[in-house]
Write a structure and sequence with these properties.
Number of domains: 4
Number of helices: 7
Strand content: 35-45%
Shape: flat
Distance between the termini: 38 Å
Length: about 675
């Protein structure tokens, strides 16, 4: 029996500045992201968050800019706090940034705190109680920790004073962007309203009191033919198009129990599919797959079709976790900051002040800088430029001509990131834990490669980074029964010892004829490019001085990649197109690694390769997965003595035990 449990997601709505109520002569802009003075204000006016909390731990960070000094107070207030006074005057507590003191209900609780300079990031984290604990932060470091007399519904708040309209502005980070301190790590948000779980099964089922969930009823609406799950991989010589898991299941719903869900366009909910023997407790069930609901299609009054997609829709999240603010330039305001993973060549620097003497690199601190160039002329470290205190931007000693670009790495000593390091950097940005670091470590150990570099500009997603990084190893990803993101690499099946084969299938167990399709490897090339440039420069972007910028260096800077490796290995006749094919772009950073990888891939195609498709019925015990290697035997196509093959795709029905396998080998 198959059980599909649909659960509700944990989406978040982050706090912004409230436009009502709002202190007189303050202006909320950018959809609640910013608050500014609308006129000259001698007496501070107060703005507060759209969301209030009465329990738990919460926090936010604040950033100020404008022509005026920062005469402002940040903190927390109760709904009774007056909007015509500063934070902490009444019904709240706040850090008076310009005075270096914390006040609560008009009383100074602590003084001598540092006075932030303009451009600093300040924050507050509060553990709500009676009284509440408040911690204040400056540029990520805690500067005060004390109990304050606030309780009940609490908003984060700011009060501003200035000499003119727009003299001072403030943006709040309630956890939607990268956090500098524990304040924004805690965040200030509410969970989206949860949808009641839908528990479906192929027959009516009640869990035991000792199960989780306990004493829960599953509606027997799933069609008896079960569901088909799909998992597959694709490597760059084939199509270079990553495959993802999917499934469909039919629901017999003559009573219209799912009508509202279908009409309401319910989607995005996580789905866990498990299998349990009839009459057995849920605790004995085994995982089949995890998905998210893609859509519910109404087939007729009695039937609906549920379509699921892979559980890793978070891969479409932005790779960059910070944004540029208005003071860094109107043209880039609210644009996602670039991301640097591993060693990146020609990372474009973005001017964030008027004369361009401050050049932004990326959203996280850089591990090392190898070189910085202005129009191709190398700048001297320590003399012409220094790395900013947070490790995210360059400070130039004089305005550049531009464009400015740099060779940088997220690792020390300009080292590339190993596969495991790179994926750790990528997935940590979205808090993703359901991936196999062991798979990445195994590929690192087998390949011995130094690693990769990936540059993600505005609009880059986690999926973009994952695809680009895995291509360097001729690898792809798939998800296992528990929804964990796993990795598989294209290898020669014959390299696997007989003792390590995962299956041995004879033609007698096939439910039909074996179908053979030649692998034409349309993307195969003898060349593999490495060290891709973050920005490809034109001839007009570079100086003309041949001594400062030799022709070879100029060519590197104006190409997609700094170099390419070539393999002269033997290829089967059907792969002659690889001789003149454009190089495949990899994110490998070292020439020797690119050479080793292209030699390995070309060697795979020394013999003609084929795809094999076969159906197997009534084998619920058969659980094949992408990347596994086994043996098939068939009386035709030269397979009489058996041949080792790699699993590239599996379509399975865990209820009926029917499978369609796509295999790859010689």
């Amino acid at each position: 029996m198959t059980i599909a449990t649909q659960m509700s997601p944990a989406g978040k709505t982050f706090a912004r500045w409230s436009s009502s109520p709002l202190g007189a002569d303050l202006v909320v802009g950018d959809g609640g992201m910013t608050v500014s003075t609308g006129t000259a204000l001698v007496t501070p006016r107060l703005a507060r968050s759209t969301i209030a909390h009465d329990s738990g731990s919460h926090g936010a960070e604040f950033f100020f800019w404008g022509d005026d000094p920062v005469v402002a107070t940040i903190g927390v207030v109760m709904p009774t706090a007056p909007l015509s006074a500063e934070v902490g005057y009444s019904g709240g507590a706040g850090w008076r940034l310009h005075a270096g003191e914390v006040v609560a209900n008009g009383v100074v609780l602590v003084s001598g705190l540092p006075i932030p300079i303009k451009g600093a990031t300040v924050g507050i984290a509060v553990d709500i109680g009676s009284p509440s604990r408040a911690r204040f932060f400056l540029d990520g470091e805690q500067v005060a920790d004390l109990m304050v007399p606030v309780a009940g519904a609490i908003h984060f708040a700011v009060s501003l004073a200035s000499t003119k309209a727009g003299g001072i502005s403030c943006a709040a980070n309630a956890g939607q962007w990268q956090a500098l301190s524990a304040a924004a790590h805690a965040g200030w948000f509410i969970e989206d309203e949860q949808v009641e779980p839908m528990r479906l099964a192929s027959e009516d089922y009640m869990t035991l009191a000792t199960d989780a969930p306990a004493s829960a009823a599953f509606m027997g609406l799933l069609a008896s033919d079960g569901l088909s799950t799909v998992a597959s991989v694709s490597f760059w010589p084939w199509e270079n198009a990553s495959r993802s898991g999917s499934a469909q299941v039919r629901v017999m719903d003559s009573q219209g129990l799912l009508d509202a869900a279908a009409i309401g366009a319910l989607r995005g909910q996580p789905v866990a599919v498990r299998q349990v023997l009839q009459g057995q407790p849920l605790s004995t069930s085994v995982a089949v797959a995890r998905f998210v609901l893609d859509r519910i299609d109404i087939e007729d009054d009695g039937r609906k079709l549920l379509t699921f997609r892979d559980a890793h829709n978070d891969l479409d999240s932005p790779l960059g976790r910070s944004v540029f603010l208005p003071p860094q330039g109107e043209g880039i305001a609210w644009q996602t900051m670039p991301a640097v993973i591993g060693a990146v060549r020609s990372a474009p620097c973005i001017a964030v002040n008027r004369d361009g003497s401050q050049q932004w690199l990326c959203d996280f601190p850089i591990g090392s800088v190898e070189s910085v160039m202005d129009r191709g002329a190398k700048l001297e470290a320590g003399t012409a430029y220094t790395l900013g205190p947070r490790g995210q931007h360059l400070v130039l000693s004089s305005p550049p001509v531009g464009p400015v670009f740099a060779d940088v790495s997220s690792q020390p000593d300009m080292a590339p990131a190993t596969l495991r390091q790179a994926l750790t950097e990528v997935f940590s940005r979205i808090g993703k834990a359901s991936w196999s670091a062991d798979d990445a470590q195994a590929i690192d150990q087998i390949s011995g490669y130094g690693g990769v570099g990936f540059y993600g500009g505005d609009g880059a997603t986690v999926r973009d980074a994952l695809s680009g990084i895995l291509t360097a190893y001729t690898a792809d990803w798939w998800q296992d029964d528990d929804g964990v993101l796993r990795l598989a690499r294209l290898i020669d099946p014959e390299s696997i010892a007989d003792a390590d084969l995962r299956f041995d299938l004879d033609w007698n167990v096939f439910a039909g004829d074996l179908i053979v399709l030649p692998d034409l490897a349309p993307n195969l090339s003898r060349r593999l490019a490495y060290q891709p440039n973050g920005v490809i420069l034109g001839a007009g972007d570079l100086i003309t001085d041949l001594e400062q910028l030799p022709p070879e260096r100029r060519q590197q800077l104006t190409s997609v990649c700094r170099g390419q490796a070539y393999s002269g290995g033997m290829l089967a006749a059907r792969y002659a197109h690889a001789d003149s094919a454009a190089p495949m772009v990899s994110r490998l950073d070292r020439k020797e690694d690119a050479q080793a990888e292209i030699e390995r891939v070309v060697a795979l195609y020394e013999v003609p390769r084929n795809f094999y498709a076969v159906r197997i019925n009534a084998r619920p015990d058969l659980r094949l997965r992408p990347g596994q290697v086994g043996r098939i035997t068939y009386p035709r196509y030269g397979l009489q003595a058996g041949r080792k093959v790699l699993v590239s795709g599996v379509t399975s029905n865990p209820v009926t035990g029917d499978h369609v396998l796509k295999l790859w080998g010689a």
